[in-house]
């Protein structure tokens, strides 16, 4: 069922003469689609596109990926079955998906490369340095739906921002926002890959946009740059080896062979995107909420490791980082400290957590102390 359907007096919402309440794929449908894209830009999105619900090819890829177990502990990927790849099954009545993107690369931050080369600093994926994007984008999508409704009258829609079983990259590709690169992220020739995606599932029979073809060519920079070899082949990611998965999604103990490869990456990993040639054209975010907060773009591992749980909760309020909880936060930091250049300051910080209530934390602290030569 659609959520977000707004019931208003149809007479009060009557569309102008050039745009009847129910539009099709003719010239009037084209007019509405152009208006939708203009409104999306006005709301801060970089681009919007429209596609249908047929994801047959992507569904086959998804099912192979699940059969190979490459989703790791993300059981929800399998639990939702084909509802992820069949929008009309997730939201009955869906005819079209309006896909949007919004740049998130935060301005005026410490160079990511310099952070990664400083073993005592903490690297946090660029998308997590600012406020939680889910609320920011969902609110804008709701506003977009209301603008559409102001000219069409009530219609069925649901907004998604990484909040349901949705193949957002596949939908964005079909809607012409870019192509899925060899690293499995969505790429644009004009804006690279540093952006968030969101969707409006709708029952409006809008005209379709044309998908963009791949422009990866023979490049394999992303495969060669992956610290853990998680990109096992072009367009194939084994999440079980991916640092983003290990630091965010993975519960429990991080496999020991992978810990030294993680370096100082304590929340996510951007390596495959940093080396992509198309990101030379990447656009800096204009959304103020995506600016780095609390100096997290330039902070030491030891400083973050000293955060107790109340401090962690206070300083990550409104951030996606808060979702991993304090326990995983300390676990990840312990790995980073184990990979840092040996120092008495690091060993002292680790020793203070040797009796932590969490078995995860204690295990990773002991490993880190061994690496530090303690």
Automatic annotation (TrEMBL):
Top-level class of the enzyme under EC nomenclature: oxidoreductase
Cofactor binding remark: Binds 2 [4Fe-4S] clusters per monomer.
Superkingdom of the source species: Bacteria
Subcellular localization(s) per the UniProt record: Cytoplasm
Pfam families: Fer4_16, QueG_DUF1730
Cofactor entry: cob(II)alamin; [4Fe-4S] cluster
InterPro entries for the chain: 4Fe4S_Fe-S-bd (IPR017896), 4Fe4S_Fe_S_CS (IPR017900), QueG (IPR004453), QueG_DUF1730 (IPR013542)
Gene Ontology MF terms: 4 iron, 4 sulfur cluster binding; cobalamin binding; epoxyqueuosine reductase activity; metal ion binding
CC annotations in GO: cytoplasm
Reaction it catalyzes: epoxyqueuosine(34) in tRNA + AH2 = queuosine(34) in tRNA + A + H2O
Positions with a binding annotation for [4Fe-4S] cluster 1: 216, 219, 222, 276
Domain 4Fe-4S ferredoxin-type stretches: 204-236
Gene Ontology BP terms: tRNA queuosine(34) biosynthetic process
EC code(s) of this entry: 1.17.99.6
Purpose: Catalyzes the conversion of epoxyqueuosine (oQ) to queuosine (Q), which is a hypermodified base found in the wobble positions of tRNA(Asp), tRNA(Asn), tRNA(His) and tRNA(Tyr).
Quaternary structure annotation from Swiss-Prot or TrEMBL: Monomer.
Protein name: Epoxyqueuosine reductase
Gene: queG
